[in-house]
Amino acid sequence: MNFRPRRGAALGALCALALLVSACGGGNSNGSSAPKASGAKPSMAFVGPNGETPTAADQLSLTPEDMDKIKAGNFTAAFVWHEDSALVKAVESGARKQFEKLGIKVVATTSADFDAAKQANNVQSVLAKNPNVIVTIAVDPTSAAAAFKPAVDKGTKLVIMTTPPKGYKAGQQMVGIVTMDLAAMGKANAEMLGKALNGKGKVGYLYHDADFWFTNQRDKAFKDWLAYLYPDIQIVAQQGFSDPARTEDIANAMLTQHSDLNGMYVAWATAADGVLSALRSAGRKEVKVVTNDLEANQAADLVKGGNMAGMVNNGSVRVGEGLATMAGYGLIGKKAPEMVVGAPKTATKDTIADAWRDDYAQDPPASVTK
């Protein structure tokens, strides 16, 4: 899957998952190991949808005594997803493995196909199976607040991947949130693009034009770190989008207005499809692109040395493990961090296989590697 936004209510359910990363070590035009910094250093801090502060994923753990308590409870769990995709399957795979270690039986898994009404119906269907915990991501935060209220009233523990129902708070209506380090993702993209451009050039910036905490902070982190690390790279064109289908038109306009464009940032991978199409149609093989999420089309372009310079993964399996571990906290009444973030991995031509395995717990498909 992608935690990517879709039209209408689905804008609230981003893909999306990824996280605390140390500096990736970009390069500048003189070939030094670290780029030249300029101005005030951007913060690595960010907050969740209700102002939650991040806690590193390695701080989330259960003691042997905790695990014994959970196993003794004979608890059950269910997944109420927003969509069915490769990323969702990877997250669920990680969660199922951890649930198995904790003796928690999975009794249901559902997909809403990015339909808020369908997700509400799925909640009712799942509650009929009386799970002790539900792992979910809200399709539409506003309507999800009412949809999940019966679960809250019933005492079912809610563990959230990235996007909670509106107004739900950790330790109250939900146990907590598991997501990605957005500042680290933005910084990693800036470093990869800076290195690909040898520390200088002109860039187009295609950001998510919607009021959504996840993408907004990630996009801003890219912009801030690019300016700080690579003062000789300028963003000369910027345009927001809410519909990924519009990115090809936006990219075409940028290329027309700025014939000397060297690079582009796109908020997430499927939205980069349109950008790649525009670049290919214009014969602009030299323009380098970075984005978030690992998708086969962009990964194949990366491997064959096309326009893609790099991607940032979601650590999906690790996110699933974190969701299941946080569920354990809730089931035994152990106070959990309000928001846990894991570290993303960068995917370049040389590292795509490792990043893909980290994201999906399997080797990249032949369409990528061959």
UniProtKB/TrEMBL annotation:
<dbReference type="GO" id="GO:0030246">
    <property type="term" value="F:carbohydrate binding"/>
</dbReference>
<protein>
    <submittedName>
        <fullName>Sugar ABC transporter substrate-binding protein</fullName>
    </submittedName>
</protein>
<feature type="compositionally biased region" description="Low complexity">
    <location>
        <begin position="31"/>
        <end position="43"/>
    </location>
</feature>
<keyword id="KW-0732">Signal</keyword>
<feature type="domain" description="Periplasmic binding protein">
    <location>
        <begin position="85"/>
        <end position="334"/>
    </location>
</feature>
<dbReference type="InterPro" id="IPR025997">
    <property type="entry name" value="SBP_2_dom"/>
</dbReference>
<dbReference type="GO" id="GO:0030313">
    <property type="term" value="C:cell envelope"/>
</dbReference>
<dbReference type="InterPro" id="IPR028082">
    <property type="entry name" value="Peripla_BP_I"/>
</dbReference>
<comment type="similarity">
    <text>Belongs to the bacterial solute-binding protein 2 family.</text>
</comment>
<feature type="signal peptide">
    <location>
        <begin position="1"/>
        <end position="23"/>
    </location>
</feature>
<feature type="region of interest" description="Disordered">
    <location>
        <begin position="31"/>
        <end position="55"/>
    </location>
</feature>
<dbReference type="Pfam" id="PF13407">
    <property type="entry name" value="Peripla_BP_4"/>
</dbReference>
